[in-house]
Amino acid sequence: MHASKLIILFLIISFFYACSEKKEKIYRPVSVVNHPVWSINKTIYEVNIRQYTPEGTFKAFQKHLPALKDLGVGIIWLMPIHPIGKEKRKGSLGSYYSVRDFMAINPDFGSKEEFADLVKAIHEAGMFVIIDWVANHSAWDNPLTKSNPEFYTKDKNGNFALPDPNWTDVIDFNYDNLDMRNYMLKAMKYWVTEFDIDGYRCDMADLVPTDFWDQTRRDLDAIKQVFMLAESETAFLHNRAFDMTYDWKMFHTLNKIAKGKSNSTQIDSVLLASERLFPKSAFRMRFTTNHDENSWNGTVAKRLGDAAKVSAVLTATLPGKPLLYSGQEAGLDRPLKFFDKDQIDWKESTFREFYSRLFNLYQNNPALHLGNMVKIDAEDDKDVFAFARIADPHKVVVVLNFSDQQKEIELDSGLLGGSYKELFSGVNVVFENSEDFELEPWAYRVFVGEQVVAKN
Asked: Are residue 283 and residue 391 in the same domain, yes or no?
């Protein structure tokens, strides 16, 4: 009898333990996306053609390619290149994301021939190009509204529906219509086939059915292997369609830290959540601004202040890919108008050399674009974030002070030992496994292992 009770007790404990284990298990998507080989070590740069030069054209922008190559840019993301709707237009020039014709070029930017020349020049410079694609909606005066009104979502009165109450210059596509899907897929194939672009940044990707993106990736990859960036942080979009998604959580965390509303321990939390939910092969895009944030939510200077550079160092050295928006390398310190001409002021700035060092290191050092990340304990200091990136024999050690206070800390790790050159000062150092560091407010140190061999 006693033995029977023990057996029953054992079974009950085992049952509850199994339930507990099952509850703790988190589903982690598995991706079948094959990244283009060329994309592995590439950084990304967002181009606002309208505001880049006085002319606001492809031809004028093309002259800047050598400077971008020197900056360490690998992938050029062009904001929408298509004609902009005139009906219900916002501002004098309208939103780039109100597309009047998916198969045409915005005449303000140039001709199809000039766009083809730009793509060719980008490729000849050893860089790649993706274009912004607005698959969820179109302008009110897109010809499809006349030829195929059934392509659009209708409200209860049978009128074209807005995708969002505030987006009054666009109307919503109906993805229940298979002909509409086929049209959109045909248009996306066109730019790959006819102009040899290397992929797409897909606007508002969560608003478009995932199975459409899955089919699109299959069909585009049948033409050439493409790179796909989703404006989303939904993990399952990586399963079959996208190479990279936005890391908005890290972006917002950096904003909070800069305002004193959080500390570097939150960085760990964001990284852990991403690690558990996203496929291991998924690229996460790291950034301190982009076109939306700059125009609508405040400049880097306003949001991050003195934390701007230390935050940028983190985005360029964490696993993932760093993004730079037009003008950041010139210290862009004002919001650019979204619906009107507002040229970037290309002034001299310390940010150019700063980003050049970071972006070239990312491209040339396997520790940053291939390596594992290992956290280094900072004596429980919640303001100091330290870690190593390792792809043997390459190693990069990063030490960051996310506070406005002077810090004196000891880092103790077997990962520290070795000879390094500090990226920004050029100072050579030799570390033991335990080292003391003095960090001024918002300081950043990037120590590059001396055994690193740069790629051409």
From this structure: no
Burial label, 289 (beta-carbon count in 10 A; 0-12, 13-18, 19+): buried
Write down the pTM of the prediction.
0.93
Q: Which domain holds residue 410?
A: 372-449
pLDDT, residue 394, reads 97
- pLDDT at 20 (0 to 100): 39
Q: Give the single-character DSSP code of 108.
A: T
| Residue ranges in the chain modelled with pLDDT below 50 | 1-24, 452-456
CATH of the domain at 432: 2.60.40.1180
Measure the CA–CA gap between 46 and 325, rounded to whole angstroms: 5
Q: Using CA atoms, how far apart are residues 369 and 358, in angstroms rounded to an integer?
A: 12
Judgement on whether residues 153 and 234 belong to the same structural domain of the protein: yes
pLDDT in tens, 167-221: 999 999 999 999 999 999 999 999 999 999 999 999 999 999 999 999 999 999 9
Do residues 79 and 224 both lie within one domain?
A: yes
Pairing, β 283-286 against β 244-246: parallel
Cα separation, 236 vs 277, in Å, equals: 9
In the chain, how many domains are there? Answer: 2
H-only helix segments in 76-225:
112-124, 144-147, 178-195, 210-223
Could you give the count of Cα atoms lying within 13 Å of 213 in the half-sphere of its Cβ? 32
CB-side neighbour CA atoms (13 Å) of 243: 24
Quick: pLDDT tens for 373-386: 999 999 878 999 99
Residue 405 placed within a domain:
yes
- Determine the Cα–Cα distance for residues 374 and 250; give it in Å rounded to an integer: 18
